[in-house]
Amino acid sequence: MRILTAPTHASVLAFCALGASLIAQGVVPPLVTSVVNPFPGLGAGPVPATDVQQVSFVHLPTDPSNVFYCGMTGTALSPSFGGVGGTDVLCGSYDVLTDTFTPNNDAAALNTTGTEFGLTIHSSGLLAVFDRLPGAPWLASRIALGQPWQIVGQVSGLPSQGYYDPSLATYHGQLHLIHVLGSSIAMTPIDPLAAALTGPSVVIVNPVTASSTANSPTPVTDPNGELIGVSHHDLVGSDNDHYMSLDLDPNTPAVLMQDTTTWINNGSFIGGRFFDAEYTPAPYHVLSMDTFWFTGGRATIGSTMYIRMFTPPTAGPEVYLSSFIFSTSYLPSGLTLPGVSGLVGINPNSAFGSGLILHDNSNGEAVGSIGIPNAPAFQGITMPMQMATLEAVSNTVHLGNTAVFKID
Questions:
Q1: CB under 8 Å to 188, separation ≥6 — which residues?
Q2: Is the pLDDT of residue 162 over 60?
Q3: Which of 44, 54, 304, 339 could lock 266 by a disulfide, CB 3.0 to 4.6 Å apart?
Protein backbone atom coordinates (compact mmCIF):
# COMPACT_ATOMS: atom_id res chain seq x y z
CA MET A 1 0.00 0.00 0.00
CA ARG A 2 1.34 3.42 -0.94
CA ILE A 3 1.07 5.93 1.92
CA LEU A 4 1.69 9.58 1.10
CA THR A 5 2.95 11.75 3.93
CA ALA A 6 0.96 14.84 2.96
CA PRO A 7 -1.71 14.26 0.28
CA THR A 8 -3.68 17.30 -0.82
CA HIS A 9 -7.47 17.37 -0.89
CA ALA A 10 -7.33 17.78 -4.64
CA SER A 11 -5.13 14.71 -5.15
CA VAL A 12 -7.37 12.57 -2.95
CA LEU A 13 -10.52 13.64 -4.76
CA ALA A 14 -8.94 13.24 -8.18
CA PHE A 15 -8.00 9.69 -7.25
CA CYS A 16 -11.49 9.00 -5.91
CA ALA A 17 -13.05 10.18 -9.15
CA LEU A 18 -11.34 7.28 -10.90
CA GLY A 19 -13.15 4.68 -8.80
CA ALA A 20 -16.35 2.86 -9.46
CA SER A 21 -19.53 4.24 -7.92
CA LEU A 22 -20.56 1.67 -5.35
CA ILE A 23 -21.95 1.61 -1.85
CA ALA A 24 -20.50 -1.14 0.33
CA GLN A 25 -18.20 -1.65 3.26
CA GLY A 26 -16.08 -4.61 2.25
CA VAL A 27 -15.74 -7.80 4.28
CA VAL A 28 -13.03 -7.00 6.85
CA PRO A 29 -14.46 -6.26 10.33
CA PRO A 30 -12.86 -4.18 13.08
CA LEU A 31 -9.79 -5.92 14.49
CA VAL A 32 -10.60 -7.27 17.98
CA THR A 33 -7.42 -7.68 20.02
CA SER A 34 -8.73 -8.55 23.49
CA VAL A 35 -11.95 -9.22 25.40
CA VAL A 36 -12.55 -8.59 29.12
CA ASN A 37 -15.60 -10.46 30.41
CA PRO A 38 -17.06 -9.42 32.79
CA PHE A 39 -15.83 -5.83 32.75
CA PRO A 40 -15.38 -4.66 36.37
CA GLY A 41 -15.97 -0.90 36.39
CA LEU A 42 -19.41 -1.10 34.75
CA GLY A 43 -20.78 -4.00 36.78
CA ALA A 44 -22.97 -4.41 39.85
CA GLY A 45 -21.19 -2.73 42.74
CA PRO A 46 -19.78 0.35 41.00
CA VAL A 47 -23.23 0.54 39.40
CA PRO A 48 -25.88 0.74 42.17
CA ALA A 49 -27.99 -2.12 40.78
CA THR A 50 -27.94 -5.93 40.86
CA ASP A 51 -27.11 -6.17 37.15
CA VAL A 52 -26.35 -4.05 34.06
CA GLN A 53 -28.45 -4.84 30.98
CA GLN A 54 -27.48 -2.00 28.65
CA VAL A 55 -24.92 0.76 28.38
CA SER A 56 -24.40 3.78 26.11
CA PHE A 57 -21.90 6.65 26.01
CA VAL A 58 -21.66 10.15 24.60
CA HIS A 59 -18.86 12.66 25.09
CA LEU A 60 -19.97 16.05 26.38
CA PRO A 61 -17.90 19.15 25.50
CA THR A 62 -17.72 20.13 29.18
CA ASP A 63 -15.91 16.90 30.13
CA PRO A 64 -12.25 15.88 29.80
CA SER A 65 -11.52 13.73 26.76
CA ASN A 66 -11.32 10.54 28.87
CA VAL A 67 -14.68 11.08 30.65
CA PHE A 68 -17.96 10.08 28.99
CA TYR A 69 -21.60 10.62 29.92
CA CYS A 70 -23.30 7.29 30.39
CA GLY A 71 -26.84 5.93 30.13
CA MET A 72 -27.59 2.40 31.34
CA THR A 73 -30.26 -0.04 32.49
CA GLY A 74 -30.24 -2.12 35.66
CA THR A 75 -32.42 -4.26 37.92
CA ALA A 76 -33.18 -3.21 41.51
CA LEU A 77 -31.56 0.18 41.02
CA SER A 78 -30.93 1.95 44.32
CA PRO A 79 -33.72 4.40 45.27
CA SER A 80 -30.93 6.92 45.96
CA PHE A 81 -30.46 7.14 42.19
CA GLY A 82 -34.09 6.95 41.10
CA GLY A 83 -34.82 3.23 41.31
CA VAL A 84 -38.51 2.40 41.81
CA GLY A 85 -38.74 -1.24 40.73
CA GLY A 86 -38.42 -3.56 37.74
CA THR A 87 -35.67 -2.41 35.41
CA ASP A 88 -34.82 1.26 35.64
CA VAL A 89 -32.49 3.63 33.79
CA LEU A 90 -29.52 5.45 35.26
CA CYS A 91 -27.05 8.13 34.22
CA GLY A 92 -23.52 8.85 35.35
CA SER A 93 -20.03 9.68 34.21
CA TYR A 94 -17.40 7.13 33.24
CA ASP A 95 -13.62 7.62 33.20
CA VAL A 96 -12.31 5.14 30.63
CA LEU A 97 -8.70 5.44 31.78
CA THR A 98 -9.37 4.60 35.42
CA ASP A 99 -12.45 2.41 34.79
CA THR A 100 -14.45 4.52 37.24
CA PHE A 101 -18.23 4.98 37.05
CA THR A 102 -19.87 7.77 39.07
CA PRO A 103 -23.70 7.60 39.14
CA ASN A 104 -25.97 10.63 39.33
CA ASN A 105 -29.69 11.40 39.57
CA ASP A 106 -30.17 12.83 36.06
CA ALA A 107 -32.48 9.98 34.95
CA ALA A 108 -34.51 9.60 38.16
CA ALA A 109 -37.63 11.25 36.72
CA LEU A 110 -37.75 8.76 33.84
CA ASN A 111 -38.38 5.67 35.98
CA THR A 112 -41.66 3.98 36.90
CA THR A 113 -42.54 0.67 38.53
CA GLY A 114 -42.70 -0.79 35.01
CA THR A 115 -39.93 -1.77 32.60
CA GLU A 116 -37.66 1.06 31.48
CA PHE A 117 -34.84 -0.10 29.21
CA GLY A 118 -32.15 1.14 26.87
CA LEU A 119 -31.45 4.78 27.75
CA THR A 120 -29.39 6.31 24.93
CA ILE A 121 -28.36 9.93 24.52
CA HIS A 122 -28.05 12.11 21.43
CA SER A 123 -24.56 13.47 20.69
CA SER A 124 -25.68 16.93 21.88
CA GLY A 125 -26.29 15.58 25.38
CA LEU A 126 -29.69 17.34 25.41
CA LEU A 127 -32.01 14.61 24.11
CA ALA A 128 -32.46 10.99 25.17
CA VAL A 129 -34.73 8.10 24.32
CA PHE A 130 -35.61 4.77 25.93
CA ASP A 131 -38.08 1.90 25.83
CA ARG A 132 -40.84 1.66 28.41
CA LEU A 133 -42.28 -1.76 27.68
CA PRO A 134 -44.79 -2.57 26.40
CA GLY A 135 -45.42 0.26 23.98
CA ALA A 136 -43.60 2.85 21.89
CA PRO A 137 -40.37 4.54 23.05
CA TRP A 138 -40.28 7.67 25.19
CA LEU A 139 -38.37 10.86 24.42
CA ALA A 140 -36.71 12.98 27.11
CA SER A 141 -34.90 16.32 27.00
CA ARG A 142 -33.14 18.83 29.23
CA ILE A 143 -32.49 22.52 28.88
CA ALA A 144 -28.74 22.35 29.56
CA LEU A 145 -25.95 19.91 30.24
CA GLY A 146 -25.86 18.87 33.88
CA GLN A 147 -29.62 19.25 34.29
CA PRO A 148 -31.98 16.30 34.98
CA TRP A 149 -33.95 14.64 32.21
CA GLN A 150 -37.64 15.41 31.79
CA ILE A 151 -40.18 13.47 29.74
CA VAL A 152 -41.20 15.07 26.43
CA GLY A 153 -43.66 12.32 25.58
CA GLN A 154 -44.19 8.90 24.11
CA VAL A 155 -43.12 8.72 20.48
CA SER A 156 -46.12 8.63 18.16
CA GLY A 157 -46.31 7.16 14.68
CA LEU A 158 -44.57 3.80 15.08
CA PRO A 159 -46.20 0.45 14.30
CA SER A 160 -46.88 -1.77 17.29
CA GLN A 161 -44.16 -4.32 18.05
CA GLY A 162 -42.50 -5.97 21.03
CA TYR A 163 -39.57 -3.55 21.43
CA TYR A 164 -37.76 -0.79 19.54
CA ASP A 165 -34.20 -0.42 20.94
CA PRO A 166 -34.35 3.33 20.18
CA SER A 167 -31.46 5.75 19.79
CA LEU A 168 -31.08 9.23 18.32
CA ALA A 169 -28.84 10.74 15.65
CA THR A 170 -28.78 13.65 13.23
CA TYR A 171 -28.85 12.97 9.49
CA HIS A 172 -28.50 15.84 7.01
CA GLY A 173 -29.37 18.29 9.78
CA GLN A 174 -32.57 16.51 10.86
CA LEU A 175 -33.00 14.62 14.14
CA HIS A 176 -33.83 10.96 13.53
CA LEU A 177 -35.02 8.12 15.71
CA ILE A 178 -32.94 5.00 15.00
CA HIS A 179 -34.96 1.92 15.88
CA VAL A 180 -35.92 -1.67 15.22
CA LEU A 181 -38.64 -1.89 12.57
CA GLY A 182 -39.93 -5.43 12.16
CA SER A 183 -36.78 -7.47 11.68
CA SER A 184 -34.72 -4.53 10.34
CA ILE A 185 -33.23 -1.28 11.67
CA ALA A 186 -34.66 2.00 10.36
CA MET A 187 -34.23 5.74 10.80
CA THR A 188 -37.25 8.04 11.02
CA PRO A 189 -37.28 11.86 11.33
CA ILE A 190 -38.68 13.04 14.65
CA ASP A 191 -39.85 16.36 16.10
CA PRO A 192 -37.96 16.78 19.41
CA LEU A 193 -40.59 19.17 20.80
CA ALA A 194 -43.58 16.91 20.23
CA ALA A 195 -42.01 13.41 20.26
CA ALA A 196 -43.81 12.85 16.95
CA LEU A 197 -42.39 11.23 13.84
CA THR A 198 -42.47 13.64 10.91
CA GLY A 199 -41.66 11.48 7.89
CA PRO A 200 -41.42 7.95 6.58
CA SER A 201 -39.12 5.34 8.07
CA VAL A 202 -36.10 4.39 5.94
CA VAL A 203 -34.56 0.97 6.51
CA ILE A 204 -30.77 1.23 6.92
CA VAL A 205 -29.87 -2.31 8.08
CA ASN A 206 -31.46 -5.58 7.04
CA PRO A 207 -31.20 -8.78 9.11
CA VAL A 208 -28.31 -11.07 8.27
CA THR A 209 -30.61 -14.00 7.45
CA ALA A 210 -34.28 -14.45 6.65
CA SER A 211 -34.83 -15.87 10.14
CA SER A 212 -32.89 -13.27 12.16
CA THR A 213 -33.65 -9.82 13.57
CA ALA A 214 -31.32 -6.81 13.45
CA ASN A 215 -31.44 -4.98 16.78
CA SER A 216 -29.71 -2.74 19.34
CA PRO A 217 -28.49 0.04 17.01
CA THR A 218 -25.76 2.35 18.31
CA PRO A 219 -25.21 5.35 16.01
CA VAL A 220 -21.76 5.86 14.49
CA THR A 221 -21.32 9.55 13.72
CA ASP A 222 -18.74 12.06 12.54
CA PRO A 223 -17.41 14.66 15.04
CA ASN A 224 -20.41 16.90 14.32
CA GLY A 225 -22.88 14.17 15.21
CA GLU A 226 -23.81 13.39 11.58
CA LEU A 227 -24.93 9.77 11.17
CA ILE A 228 -22.55 7.56 9.18
CA GLY A 229 -23.61 4.05 10.19
CA VAL A 230 -24.55 1.83 13.12
CA SER A 231 -22.96 -0.72 15.38
CA HIS A 232 -25.68 -3.26 16.11
CA HIS A 233 -26.59 -6.88 16.81
CA ASP A 234 -28.36 -9.70 14.96
CA LEU A 235 -30.52 -12.27 16.73
CA VAL A 236 -31.21 -15.90 15.80
CA GLY A 237 -33.04 -17.81 18.52
CA SER A 238 -31.15 -16.92 21.71
CA ASP A 239 -27.86 -16.08 19.94
CA ASN A 240 -27.38 -12.34 19.49
CA ASP A 241 -24.07 -11.37 17.85
CA HIS A 242 -22.31 -8.03 17.27
CA TYR A 243 -22.20 -6.59 13.72
CA MET A 244 -21.14 -3.36 12.01
CA SER A 245 -22.94 -1.54 9.18
CA LEU A 246 -21.23 1.63 7.97
CA ASP A 247 -22.97 2.89 4.85
CA LEU A 248 -26.71 3.20 5.70
CA ASP A 249 -27.54 0.93 2.75
CA PRO A 250 -29.73 -2.03 3.77
CA ASN A 251 -28.53 -4.01 0.74
CA THR A 252 -24.96 -4.02 2.07
CA PRO A 253 -24.39 -7.13 4.20
CA ALA A 254 -23.52 -6.39 7.82
CA VAL A 255 -20.00 -7.41 8.89
CA LEU A 256 -19.69 -9.77 11.85
CA MET A 257 -17.54 -8.29 14.61
CA GLN A 258 -18.05 -10.62 17.59
CA ASP A 259 -19.63 -14.09 17.46
CA THR A 260 -20.85 -15.38 20.81
CA THR A 261 -22.88 -18.39 21.89
CA THR A 262 -25.12 -16.30 24.10
CA TRP A 263 -27.20 -13.12 24.10
CA ILE A 264 -25.36 -9.78 23.96
CA ASN A 265 -27.20 -6.54 23.43
CA ASN A 266 -27.38 -2.75 23.60
CA GLY A 267 -23.81 -1.64 23.91
CA SER A 268 -21.69 1.34 22.93
CA PHE A 269 -18.08 2.34 22.36
CA ILE A 270 -15.41 4.73 23.57
CA GLY A 271 -12.76 5.02 20.89
CA GLY A 272 -11.55 1.51 20.15
CA ARG A 273 -13.20 -0.04 23.21
CA PHE A 274 -16.65 -1.54 22.63
CA PHE A 275 -19.00 -2.47 25.47
CA ASP A 276 -21.88 -4.96 25.28
CA ALA A 277 -24.27 -6.31 27.88
CA GLU A 278 -24.27 -10.11 28.14
CA TYR A 279 -27.06 -12.28 29.56
CA THR A 280 -25.08 -15.45 30.36
CA PRO A 281 -23.51 -16.16 32.79
CA ALA A 282 -25.74 -14.37 35.29
CA PRO A 283 -26.06 -11.70 36.39
CA TYR A 284 -26.52 -9.61 33.27
CA HIS A 285 -23.18 -7.80 32.93
CA VAL A 286 -20.96 -5.71 30.67
CA LEU A 287 -18.07 -7.08 28.60
CA SER A 288 -15.52 -5.05 26.67
CA MET A 289 -13.66 -5.57 23.38
CA ASP A 290 -10.51 -3.66 22.45
CA THR A 291 -10.40 -2.96 18.72
CA PHE A 292 -8.79 -1.06 15.88
CA TRP A 293 -11.50 0.43 13.64
CA PHE A 294 -12.67 3.52 11.78
CA THR A 295 -15.86 5.06 10.47
CA GLY A 296 -15.08 5.64 6.82
CA GLY A 297 -16.36 8.99 5.61
CA ARG A 298 -19.64 10.53 4.52
CA ALA A 299 -20.32 14.14 3.50
CA THR A 300 -22.22 16.36 1.09
CA ILE A 301 -20.65 18.50 -1.62
CA GLY A 302 -19.40 21.83 -0.32
CA SER A 303 -18.76 20.45 3.19
CA THR A 304 -15.92 18.82 5.13
CA MET A 305 -15.70 15.05 5.44
CA TYR A 306 -14.40 13.79 8.77
CA ILE A 307 -12.88 10.34 9.13
CA ARG A 308 -12.67 9.08 12.71
CA MET A 309 -10.08 6.40 13.53
CA PHE A 310 -10.06 4.53 16.83
CA THR A 311 -7.58 2.60 18.97
CA PRO A 312 -8.03 1.28 22.53
CA PRO A 313 -7.89 4.07 25.13
CA THR A 314 -4.80 3.71 27.31
CA ALA A 315 -2.83 5.36 30.08
CA GLY A 316 0.24 3.44 28.92
CA PRO A 317 3.22 4.43 26.77
CA GLU A 318 1.72 3.42 23.42
CA VAL A 319 1.98 5.88 20.54
CA TYR A 320 -0.66 5.16 17.90
CA LEU A 321 -0.57 6.76 14.44
CA SER A 322 -3.15 5.89 11.79
CA SER A 323 -3.71 6.40 8.09
CA PHE A 324 -6.92 6.09 6.08
CA ILE A 325 -6.29 4.40 2.77
CA PHE A 326 -8.32 4.54 -0.46
CA SER A 327 -8.50 1.96 -3.24
CA THR A 328 -10.52 1.32 -6.38
CA SER A 329 -11.96 -1.98 -5.15
CA TYR A 330 -12.53 -4.21 -2.17
CA LEU A 331 -11.01 -7.67 -2.05
CA PRO A 332 -13.51 -10.56 -2.04
CA SER A 333 -11.91 -11.87 1.17
CA GLY A 334 -9.35 -10.58 3.64
CA LEU A 335 -5.67 -11.36 3.10
CA THR A 336 -2.98 -11.72 5.75
CA LEU A 337 0.36 -9.91 5.71
CA PRO A 338 3.38 -11.35 7.54
CA GLY A 339 4.00 -9.55 10.82
CA VAL A 340 0.80 -7.47 10.57
CA SER A 341 -2.31 -8.05 12.67
CA GLY A 342 -5.62 -7.82 10.87
CA LEU A 343 -6.55 -8.43 7.25
CA VAL A 344 -6.03 -6.49 4.03
CA GLY A 345 -9.49 -5.82 2.59
CA ILE A 346 -8.86 -3.38 -0.28
CA ASN A 347 -6.90 -3.79 -3.51
CA PRO A 348 -3.31 -2.90 -2.52
CA ASN A 349 -2.25 -2.33 -6.14
CA SER A 350 -4.31 0.86 -6.37
CA ALA A 351 -4.02 2.04 -2.76
CA PHE A 352 -3.50 5.71 -1.91
CA GLY A 353 -3.46 6.97 1.66
CA SER A 354 -3.27 9.89 4.02
CA GLY A 355 -0.31 10.73 6.20
CA LEU A 356 -0.12 9.27 9.69
CA ILE A 357 -2.35 10.99 12.25
CA LEU A 358 -1.60 10.82 15.98
CA HIS A 359 -4.25 9.39 18.31
CA ASP A 360 -5.30 10.88 21.63
CA ASN A 361 -4.70 7.97 24.02
CA SER A 362 -7.24 9.32 26.51
CA ASN A 363 -10.11 8.40 24.21
CA GLY A 364 -8.34 6.45 21.45
CA GLU A 365 -9.41 8.84 18.69
CA ALA A 366 -7.72 10.43 15.70
CA VAL A 367 -9.60 12.49 13.10
CA GLY A 368 -8.74 13.16 9.47
CA SER A 369 -10.61 15.55 7.22
CA ILE A 370 -11.08 16.26 3.52
CA GLY A 371 -12.73 19.35 2.03
CA ILE A 372 -15.36 18.39 -0.55
CA PRO A 373 -15.69 20.91 -3.41
CA ASN A 374 -19.13 22.37 -4.01
CA ALA A 375 -19.30 20.79 -7.45
CA PRO A 376 -22.07 18.48 -8.68
CA ALA A 377 -19.47 16.32 -10.45
CA PHE A 378 -18.34 14.97 -7.08
CA GLN A 379 -21.83 13.99 -5.96
CA GLY A 380 -22.31 10.23 -5.73
CA ILE A 381 -18.60 9.35 -5.61
CA THR A 382 -17.92 6.33 -3.42
CA MET A 383 -14.61 4.61 -2.73
CA PRO A 384 -13.41 1.63 -0.69
CA MET A 385 -11.31 2.54 2.35
CA GLN A 386 -9.35 0.84 5.12
CA MET A 387 -7.53 1.97 8.26
CA ALA A 388 -3.92 1.08 9.12
CA THR A 389 -2.32 1.87 12.49
CA LEU A 390 1.31 1.95 13.56
CA GLU A 391 2.11 1.53 17.26
CA ALA A 392 5.43 3.32 17.27
CA VAL A 393 6.89 2.08 20.58
CA SER A 394 6.66 -1.60 19.64
CA ASN A 395 6.85 -0.90 15.88
CA THR A 396 3.76 -3.03 15.22
CA VAL A 397 1.11 -2.51 12.54
CA HIS A 398 -2.62 -3.20 12.91
CA LEU A 399 -5.15 -3.18 10.07
CA GLY A 400 -8.66 -2.06 10.96
CA ASN A 401 -11.93 -2.60 9.14
CA THR A 402 -12.87 -1.71 5.60
CA ALA A 403 -15.48 1.04 5.12
CA VAL A 404 -16.77 3.44 2.50
CA PHE A 405 -15.93 7.01 1.41
CA LYS A 406 -19.17 8.51 0.08
CA ILE A 407 -20.13 11.98 -1.16
CA ASP A 408 -23.93 12.44 -0.99
A1: 157, 158, 176, 177, 179, 197, 199, 200, 201, 202
A2: yes
A3: 54
